[in-house]
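Now read the record:
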Amino acid sequence: VRLVESGGGLVQPGGSLRLSCAASGFTFSSHIMRWFRQAPGKERELVAFISSGGGTTNYVDSVKGRFTISRDNAKNTVYLQMNSLKPEDTAVYYCNAARTSYGVSYWGQGTQVTVSS
């Protein structure tokens, strides 16, 4: 099982980034996908959720209207489009695949997002 995040980097406030998470080794379309983030000295926080079919999404209040989660089950990839970035969005962003009814949860290695002028 592999989850490989990419797309992180340094961006100025107000800028945009698109994170990708490429999955392999499991049935991607049967798993919900989530993006978490962890800032230095803080607990890991759930940022966005998308259902296995992509029809349902949800976001933490602090990113609503700025971030969009999407998935392409044909490419086994989930995305996080981040717009209007703020310094408080600075964190390591992690991709997570889960099938809660089976107690399954997989994590990627994380990608650093830094929002700074």
In short: The two ends are 37 Å apart (CA to CA). DSSP finds no helices and eleven strands in the chain. The first strand starts at residue 2 and ends at 6. The mean pLDDT is 97.
